[in-house]
Design a protein that fits this description.
It contains nine helices and five strands. By secondary structure, it is α/β, with parallel strands linked by helices. A five-stranded mixed beta sheet has the order 2-1-3-4-5, sandwiched between helices. The termini are far apart.
């Protein structure tokens, strides 16, 4: 039986989807902040991570001037769906500041309707054209999912929902180590974002946005990217 909360959420979603796109309030945007192409956004992230690895951080966009600009509206240049792990803050790993990244975080960087809604909002209303699915070395959520499934057990409380989300990656990497499962999970989530309808799939197919996977190495601090080749 559905809870009152889930019934209410479904009803609200139905109402929002029935409204014309322009009906949903759009955040103010900086007139002097043009959209950043997926390629340029990816280059910024790579350069920022190189600074992080080298210990040459710039800590950009963290002063009072930046805060004043952002009070008028935001225009993040990339979206990051990452793990909630405290060691993997995207703004730190990529040496970015306030308003640069639109970040969605949940254990195991899994995909659900709330995450998709957040991503859709950043694409349609904030103009972000690059989506990064960021997983990481020795992910506890992935490890827990592997152990739970391998032992044919059931995780407690809401943690079981994470196990269910990660299960396809576990099944696809039977006999492999946890890092193979982490990377398979990243790939699955990337594909889930790319194929999400009615908004993101269309934007991907037209080339308006790009979705890439990324893997953060806890030992080296380096982020490696996996980009889907054009067919």
């Amino acid at each position: 039986m559905k809870s009152k909360f889930s019934i209410l959420t479904t009803a609200v979603a139905a109402i929002l989807l029935s409204l014309p796109l322009g009906t949903i309030a759009k955040e103010p945007e900086h007139a002097d902040a043009p959209k950043v192409s997926p390629a340029d956004a990816l280059a910024r992230l790579k350069a920022g991570n190189q600074r992080f690895v080298a210990g040459k951080l710039q800590h950009p966009h963290q002063d009072s001037k930046r805060r004043a600009e952002l009070a008028k509206g935001q225009r993040p240049f990339a979206i990051v769906l990452g793990c909630a792990d405290s060691r993997t803050s995207p703004e730190v790993l990529f040496d970015q500041g306030l308003g640069d990244l639109f970040v969605v975080r949940v254990a195991g960087n899994v995909l659900d309707d709330h995450a998709l809604a957040s991503i859709e909002y950043a694409v349609e209303h904030l103009g972000a054209q690059l989506i990064v699915v960021l997983g990481h070395q020795r992910c506890g959520a992935v490890q827990a999912a592997k152990e739970t499934i391998d032992s044919n057990a059931e995780a407690p409380a809401h943690i079981n929902s994470l196990v269910t989300a990660i299960q396809p990656a576990v099944e696809a990497t039977r006999g492999a180590d946890v890092e193979a499962t982490v990377k398979a999970n990243i790939d699955n989530v990337v594909e889930g974002v790319r194929s999400s309808e009615p908004v993101l799939k269309k934007e991907v197919e037209t080339g308006a946005i790009n979705v890439v996977g990324a893997y953060y190495n806890l030992d080296t601090a380096a982020v490696s990217f996996t980009e889907k080749k054009k067919e």
